[in-house]
Amino acid sequence: MTHILLIDDERAILEGLTMLLEDEGYQVTVQADPKAALANFARIAPDLVILDIKMPGLTGFEVLRKLRATSQVPVVFLTSRDDEIDELEGLRQGGDDFLKKPYSSNLLLARIEAILRRSQPARDDQLISFKGLELDGQAMTCRWLGERISLTVTECLIMMTLAQRPGSVLTREQLIHDAYEDDDYIDPRAVDSHIKRIRQKFRDVDPKFDGITSLYGVGYRLDLS
């Protein structure tokens, strides 16, 4: 059974989401205290996290940063803060999706299902090995020059899309289409945030990495020497 961890300090939100998700067959664990959620994360071992931003003790951004130090579990931000800057920051920190309260139950469920399908693909994807880059679309793993790059599911799918067509310019819309199954509500600027994080992760391993080229107003291209 798929296990979802809810982290939110609003009891009404936790109760409503728990009822919604359990009715869909998910196992649900709730945590109103973000510090307790982090302390018990390894024991809970969720398949997906739904996370509020504004909470006492730790913000959702701080929780995500700590999670990303040890886990690439998919994370969906669900928040009442209607601020584009918050959305972009959540994506920069490694979030996989972002929905605002009040939310549509059907949309939330659709986004959860899409993320889970991406994180646990049912079909075999290509194994790509190209000029020092190794990608496994089934295991969702990435290596550069033999070193592991810890990409989120969305980041790995973006890299898979670029690596399948090296040297070709791909628009943000093309990258969204391949990286998100439900792409009708994705802001193309989200791709920029994901690309920025991907580049930084590669440069943490190889400071000279410059394999993703930006073409202003057009999109991105994988250029490996």
Question: What does this molecule look like?
Answer:
With 225 residues, this protein is α/β, with parallel strands linked by helices. Helices cover 41% and strands 21% of the residues. The chain is built from 9 helices and 12 strands. The protein has a 5-stranded parallel β-sheet with strand order 2-1-3-4-5, with helices on both faces. Strands 6-7-8-9 form a 4-stranded antiparallel β-sheet, covered by helices on one side. Strands 10-12-11 form a 3-stranded antiparallel β-sheet. The mean pLDDT is 85.
Could you say which overall geometry the principal axes of the C-alpha atoms support? globular
The averaged pLDDT comes out at: 85
| Straight-line distance between termini | 44 Å
How many E-type strands?
Answer: 12
**What's the story with the biggest beta sheet?**
5 strands, parallel
CATH topology descriptor of the largest domain = Rossmann fold
Computed CA radius of gyration, to the nearest angstrom: 17 Å
Q: Percent range for helical residues?
A: 40-55%
Which stretches are low in confidence, meaning pLDDT under 50 for 5 or more residues running?
none
According to CATH, the homologous superfamily of the largest domain is Response regulator
